[in-house]
Amino acid sequence: MNKSVQYYLPDLLPEDYPVIKVGQLLNHTSGLPKPKINESFEYQYEHRFDAMKPENYVKLAVQNPIEFTLGTKQHYVNTGYFVAGLLIEKVTKDSFANQVKKRIAQPLQLEDTYVPSIYDPKIRGAHTHGYQKVMENGVTKLVDVTEWSPSLNFASGDMISTAPDIDKFFSSLLAGDLLPADVQKNLFTIPTKQDGTPIPSVDDKGNVLGKTDYAVGLRKFKMGNVIMWGKTGAKDGYLNGVGGTVDGQRQMVYTINSTDAKGSEQSKLSQQLIVSGFLGAQTK
Fold first, then answer.
1. pLDDT value at position 35?
2. For residue 165, which of 7, 32, 110, 201 is within the disulfide window of CB 3.0 to 4.6 Å?
């Protein structure tokens, strides 16, 4: 966590970039920018079978200047996870996919969890199809978005899994079965400035959203009087997430075949249902 990205990958980032610690990748305080990629559904769908190597994704991103001074703000950007995945491959001399298999999926017997090749757009075995709602000539239609290259996600979210596997993984994570105690505490440590004061969370345009709520990999949620930690994710056709209390007494996983997974209204509705379900479980 205290070693730098440049220590492991000296040729990945521009020379004028600051020295970034590994931990800053994972708590989103590195200031690494996003690549300028056309994010419209129409463009993405047309190029859904294109594959981009993770090194090229990072190189495209760092053509842009660093977003802010290290450790002064928090911005959730997938670039940090791409770099983290490349770090894993450099240090282990193995693929990110194989490391996930050997260190997590196999020991926990997650039989339906794997990281696909960036060149494989299909999902193995029985699975639900994902659909995206689009407007065409004034008419709403559903487009099948199930088959799609995972290369624009890499270590930020290209894993394929099931709700039961995610539930088992998260239980083990919260219980401390996967990480040493000194590393485990980072999952629940919200970063602060050097003087201990809170840092702001910002969006793509640098607008302040509020106080930071991400630790390393997990996000802090307050539901009523209950504090839970978890992670959500959305891909066209699919909306999912997991969360639980540190003591492991409450945990929930959801998967939704959303027809507008990245839309703000769909996300709000899903979150309302999740909060209601989680708080309801507290009273039973």
1. 95
2. 110
Identify the CA nearest to 49 among candidates 152, 175, 137.
152
Tokens 């990945």, residue? 12
Q: Which amino acid is at 87?
A: L
- What CA–CA distance (Å, rounded) separates 13 from 30? 12
Strands annotated E in 73-138 = 131-136
pLDDT at res. 274:
65
For a pLDDT cut of 70, what percent of the chain falls above it? 92
Q: How far is CA 30 from CA 84, 158, 251, in A?
A: 12, 22, 30
CA separation for the pair 154, 150 (Å, rounded): 6
Would you say 193 and 72 are in contact if contact means Cβ atoms under 8 Å apart? yes
Give the ranges where 36-127 is alpha helix by DSSP (H): 41-46, 54-61, 79-92, 96-100
Residue 267 has pLDDT above 70, yes or no: no
Where are the strands (E) in 16-68, listed by range? none
